[in-house]
Amino acid sequence: MIPKLSILDRSxxxxxxxxxxxxRDTVALARHAEALGYHRFWVSEHHSVPGVAxxxxxxxxxxxxxxxxxxxxxTGGVMLPNHQPLVVAEQFGVxxxxxxxxxxxxxxxxxxxxxxxxRALGRDTADAEGFESGLAELLGxxxxxxxxxxxxxxxxxEGLRVPAFVLATGEGAGIAARAGLPVVVGDMRNRDRLMExxxxxxxxxxxxxxxxxxxxxxxxxxxxxxxEEAARRLLVPEAWSVxxxxxxxxxxxxVPAEQVxxxxxxxxxxxxxxxxxxxxxxxxxxxxxxxxxxxxSATGADELLVTTSTYDREALLDSxxxxxxxxxxxxx
Length: 332
Known about the structure:
The chain is of the alpha/beta class. Helices cover 47% and strands 14% of the residues. Strands 1-2-3-5-6-7-8-10 form an eight-stranded parallel barrel, surrounded by nine helices. Helix 1 (19-36) links the parallel strand 1 and strand 2. Helix 1 (19-36) runs parallel beside helix 12 and helix 8 crosses helix 10 (267-277).
């Protein structure tokens, strides 16, 4: 059986388009996801990346929530080392006040991609080591228990309960377990590492006011189409962007699959491209249903958070439509 399905969208920029168009596409995709019955719709945080428009996730989440009416909306995630916990609490307090019962607070440990970005954010790599204390302070602003600034209160966050999730990069799974929070783990391609993170999380989990039991969200790329080859081609534009970034140091906009397939790649580019293309769940509805059911059975995941990036927007919408059909029996 396939568990609840949710979507993470990174507001990818397409060739011959721009950032504003990518953000509008994200909002439109959220409406589509809600109509299809997806459980959550999350947006991400990236700074100074040429191929990604999503730099302010709480602002974008507000636009998504305003454009929808039922689907849960959140961040996957706000990178806590880039922000003061008080400010994050205030932002989510505003979101929860405006859209009560629909907001999720997904939190990550990553810092800026380059030294220049980190300096512009007023951060450095060492800030990631303070994530656990920053997380405790952030949660304390909501329940009134924070100790760092006893005369200060987060308005309107204090007294509200916004579900918090930890993105499990590095030590994230252990931090989530000690805080009694749900965890988001990925990627689905590295099954051994995925299982290790989940097992560590469940073993270390301590019940808290934020969570009585472990809650696992498995995250990864999924593409569905009428044929296996069509689904594989959906993965091509993102795979090339990843390969290019790892060989040239810059993450470019998405280009059509046929353009990528016509490139003459260097040996290093080809190696990176094949690595980026391999291992993702893709295929027909029947193939993907079997793969997702096997993943759910192996991991015991409570939820699957799917991300799919491709140049062809109509094919992307079709993929999410086909994927949603697979979860209808599980959703009742």
